[in-house]
Automatic annotation (TrEMBL):
Keywords: Signal. This is Peptidase M23. Residues 23-92 form the Peptidase family M23 N-terminal domain. SUPFAM superfamilies: Duplicated hybrid motif. Residues 165-259 form the M23ase beta-sheet core domain.
Length: 267
């Protein structure tokens, strides 16, 4: 009897944690209802990229990652049969964060570094847009304990120069702190990047990708299956970083979205 009760509670809470919160702003997520869920999920594209589609309450739902530079107003999804489904994006102003980086080459890269950056951006663009057919795993945990020191979307001014907005969540943690994968999946890529430093990308299926950067050590290899909470590396300050911390990104349809939307709301 007790066992069944516990199982019921476990299933209920798993259900609650199973989907990100919608926040249809630039850098947020739009949940767009498509059709009653039966058979195969519809194939949906947004700005030329495949979109994550999941059944929610017997309805196929598109989980759209809205680019940070998206315009507010009406946006469209394109279905395989040519039909379009509209959704609304609301405006959002992100705050500015000023940081100082000691390594000047990480702020104003020399020619050799610039060439490396261009190569790496192309690789990262491809990884972020990876789409594996099947269901997505959307039950997420925070990958390391610690204070949020850099929220997603902050407009960055580095050494007094404007740079790209912040594409993830920064979590303060000491060097060597274990980094736990946010959700079950498969290691898609590991590498050493000019800005991200040692980084691990994990594929959670159906276009949901997470990324962990500035690591001092990587403990997994490409192709490894990982369970939620499994240690994939250690906190560090490799790449462009002011000090040891974990940079955590989540991508939907190749676009970085606010990872906080995948965690229980603290407010
Ligand atoms: Zn960061």
């Amino acid at each position: 009897m007790k066992k069944w009760l516990l199982l019921g509670i476990a299933l209920y809470s798993a259900n609650l944690a199973a989907f990100p919160r919608a926040n249809p702003v630039p850098g947020g997520i739009a949940l767009v209802p498509l059709a009653p869920a039966s058979g195969q999920p519809p194939i949906v594209q947004y700005a030329g990229s495949r979109v994550t589609v999941m059944p929610i309450d017997n309805q196929w739902m598109a989980l759209v990652g809205i680019p940070l530079d998206a315009e507010a107003g009406t946006q469209s999804l394109r279905l395989q049969n040519g039909a379009t489904v509209n959704f609304q994006v609301k405006a959002k102003q992100y705050k500015t964060q000023r940081i100082n980086i000691k390594d000047k080459n990480k702020v104003n890269p020399d020619d050799e570094s610039s060439q490396r950056i261009v190569r790496e951006l192309a690789i990262q663009k491809q990884i972020k847009a990876h789409f594996t057919e099947g269901a997505a795993t959307l039950d997420f945990i925070k990958p390391a304990p610690g204070r949020d020191t850099g929220r997603f979307g902050l407009r960055r001014v580095i050494n007094d120069q404007p740079r790209n907005p912040h594409s993830g969540m920064d979590i303060a943690a000491a060097k060597g702190t274990p980094v736990k994968v946010a959700a079950a999946g498969r290691v898609l890529y590991t590498g050493d990047f000019f800005f991200s430093g040692n980084a691990v990308y994990v594929d959670h299926g159906a276009g949901v990708i997470s990324m962990y950067a500035h690591l001092s050590a990587i403990d997994v290899a490409v192709g490894d299956a990982v369970q939620q909470g499994e240690v994939i590396g250690k906190v560090g300050s490799t790449g462009r970083a002011t000090g040891p911390h974990l940079h955590w990104s989540v991508y939907l349809n190749g676009e970085a979205v606010d990872p906080a939307l995948f965690l229980p709301n603290k407010k």
